[in-house]
């Protein structure tokens, strides 16, 4: 059935939960999906600890790595910056990403040298924080980055970078896996682009929160608001994590999924409908000329998020299989009747534990509403995660005097 017809085409028998809280036939699934990814989102106390970690390593590098030199800057990229963090399947930790940018010209270094120098100063930073129980306890080398491991359940993947002088002011060059070719990127500009895709809902929710808190909208940070697009991306990423749990090599990158979802999102605020619509439209934003696949970075077209697909076409095949399975899983859940049956179907594709948490939360909301004799349900405003730029002593998320 066409998506636009689904909202009004079906008449269902209503459970007590549906009668009390659900305005449309899709609300039950929407609330369960929201509760599921909410259970996987980074908790507020960990988000605050991660902000402190970004700031501390950035401040230390500014003071000790190259005093009086050209500058070292550390800032978040990826899911933490975008507010789309989800916990890894089967793990109790969160994978966070950062850029470590050295303000030096490309001609003055090589990829091998840059990576080694960043690793060296990060080792010194870890050693300098031995006294701090909240500090990192080790620095480990990865193919493209260095990983700072913390005693709390997250680690920080730090990507070495230098400025890109022939692009936007915030453009960077990253080391690649073989340490031979520079890779173009621009996480700061990408964050602004992603925010623009949800700005209307972001502003509206901030206004509602400000009214509730009796404060000015400017006092409500972006990190305190969770939009439908952010939730859609979290739903996609978690379903992907479950689907590819036994095939990690084929798992599509989060930035690829996020970019396609942001292109496809049409402003729908019902999470079930928004996710299903996004899944069906995502393929329209993939370019394929018969040989090469392209999903360009919308702010830096020299970066292709589907670059591996041309050499490994099975990755593309698996990607489309995953999208098809997600669409099937959502539609089959929508055909079930009753909270328990819908939750059981969602558990098959999103995992038992987070869906059970979402089901309990929905039941608690129902009991609270019943006890208070309320006749309606106020959807969550999502006061949990996301990262925003904050000012620090000498260093912030985007460097001294950086863009926001």
Give a verbal description of the structure.
Helix 9 crosses helix 10, helix 9 (228-243) crosses helix 11 and helix 13 (313-335) packs antiparallel against helix 14 (339-350). Strand 4 (146-149) and strand 5 form a beta hairpin. The chain has helices at residues 3-9, 16-21, 27-40, 44-65, 79-82, 111-128, 187-196, 199-213, 228-243, 254-264, 271-281, 307-311, 313-335, 339-350, 352-371, and strands spanning 72-77, 94-102, 138-141, 146-149, 154-163, 172-175, 182-185, 287-288, 293-294, 296-297, 300-304. Mean pLDDT is 84; it is low at 1-21 and 375-404. It has 15 helices and eleven strands. The chain is an alpha+beta fold and 404 residues long.
Q: How are the elements arranged and paired?
A:
Layout (H helix, E strand, L loop, with lengths): L2 H7 L6 H6 L5 H14 L3 H22 L6 E6 L1 H4 L11 E9 L8 H18 L9 E4 L4 E4 L4 E10 L8 E4 L6 E4 L1 H10 L2 H15 L14 H16 L10 H11 L6 H11 L5 E2 L4 E2 L1 E2 L2 E5 L2 H5 L1 H23 L3 H12 L1 H20 L33
Parallel strand pairs: 2-5
Antiparallel strand pairs: 1-2, 3-4, 4-5, 5-6, 6-7, 8-9, 10-11
Helix pairs in contact: 3-9, 3-14, 3-15, 9-10, 9-11, 10-11, 11-13, 13-14, 14-15
């Amino acid at each position: 059935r066409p998506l636009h017809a689904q909202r009004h085409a079906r008449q269902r028998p209503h459970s007590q939960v549906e009668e009390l809280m659900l305005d449309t036939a899709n609300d039950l699934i929407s609330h369960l999906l929201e509760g599921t990814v909410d259970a996987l989102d980074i908790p507020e106390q960990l988000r605050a600890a991660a902000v402190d970690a970004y700031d501390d390593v950035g401040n230390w590098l500014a003071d000790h790595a190259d005093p009086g030199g050209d500058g070292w800057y550390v800032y978040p990229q990826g899911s933490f910056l975008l507010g789309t963090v989800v916990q890894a399947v089967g793990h109790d930790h969160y994978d966070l990403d950062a850029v470590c940018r050295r303000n030096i010209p490309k001609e003055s270094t090589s990829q091998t040298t840059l990576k080694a120098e960043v690793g060296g100063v990060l080792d010194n930073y870890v050693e300098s924080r031995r006294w701090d129980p909240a500090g990192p306890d080790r620095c480990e080398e990865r193919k493209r980055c260095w990983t700072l491991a913390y005693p709390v359940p997250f680690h920080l993947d730090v990507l070495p970078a230098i400025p890109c002088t022939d692009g936007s002011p915030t453009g960077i060059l990253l080391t690649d896996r073989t340490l031979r070719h520079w890779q173009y990127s621009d996480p700061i500009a990408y964050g602004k682009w992603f925010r623009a895709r949800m700005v209307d809902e972001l502003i509206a929710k901030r206004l509602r929160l400000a009214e509730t808190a009796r404060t000015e909208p400017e006092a409500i940070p972006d990190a305190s608001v969770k939009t439908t697009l952010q939730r859609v991306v979290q739903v996609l990423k978690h379903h992907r994590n479950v689907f590819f749990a036994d095939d990690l090599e084929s798992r599509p990158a989060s930035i690829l999924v996020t970019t396609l979802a942001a292109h496809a999102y049409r402003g729908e605020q019902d999470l079930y409908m928004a996710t299903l619509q996004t899944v069906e439209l995502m393929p329209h934003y993939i370019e394929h000329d018969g040989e090469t696949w392209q999903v360009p970075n919308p702010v830096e077209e020299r970066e292709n998020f589907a670059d591996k697909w041309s050499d490994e076409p099975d990755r593309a095949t698996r990607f489309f299989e995953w999208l098809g399975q997600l669409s099937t899983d959502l539609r089959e859940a929508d055909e079930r009747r009753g909270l328990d049956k819908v939750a059981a179907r969602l558990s098959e594709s999103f995992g038992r534990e987070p869906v059970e948490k979402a089901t309990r939360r929905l039941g608690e909301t129902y009991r609270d509403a019943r006890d208070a004799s309320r006749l309606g349900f106020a959807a969550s405003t999502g006061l949990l995660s996301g990262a925003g730029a904050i000012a620090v002593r000498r260093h912030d998320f985007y460097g001294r005097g950086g863009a926001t």
